[in-house]
Amino acid sequence: AISLYENGLVVEAIDTLSRAIAENPHESELYYQLGHIFKDQRAFDKAAQSYIKVLSLTPHHSGAYTHLGVALKEMGRFERAIESYQKALHIDPKCVEASIHLGIAWHDMREFERAIEAYKNALALEPNMASLYYNLGNSYYEKGECDNAIEAYFRALELKPQYASAYTNLAIALKSLGKVDEAILMYEKAL
User: Does the first or last residue of the chain, that is N or C, have fewer Cβ atoms within 10 Å of its Cβ?
Assistant: First the structure.
């Protein structure tokens, strides 16, 4: 089924997994793969149903909780998504993906301090991920901590020197501190 999906045969992949599930209804990995396909296809309600089925069969599946959270967030169910990410982290405190998505959800809910905490937890596990520093910078900026935002954006750029969005947001943060000449330089680097 995965090979079919990777080759663009989405309907065939779903059919293959559905048949496999009919023959092996207690095999949680089949539901997990089906959930991924539905999630990738933006069928978030079906993805959520698949991940819930995984969890009914394998209650300590941190990946299923993480991906359930993604589906729930995409459906606008932020509180339930956060609960799902927290359950994933309770099962596996080293689940970087759950920490990242938890940070994104908190940021989207404008809970910037909580987003910062989640991103810092993820960075403790994955310290060389430029996008995490970028997200951290965004939360600091939204919280009004421009100096910390600037530091995070610079760290993102150290890790990924061609990160145009980091240059742009760095320029915005510099401009907000009145550092117009530095901001212009960063805008130019973004191009």
Answer: C
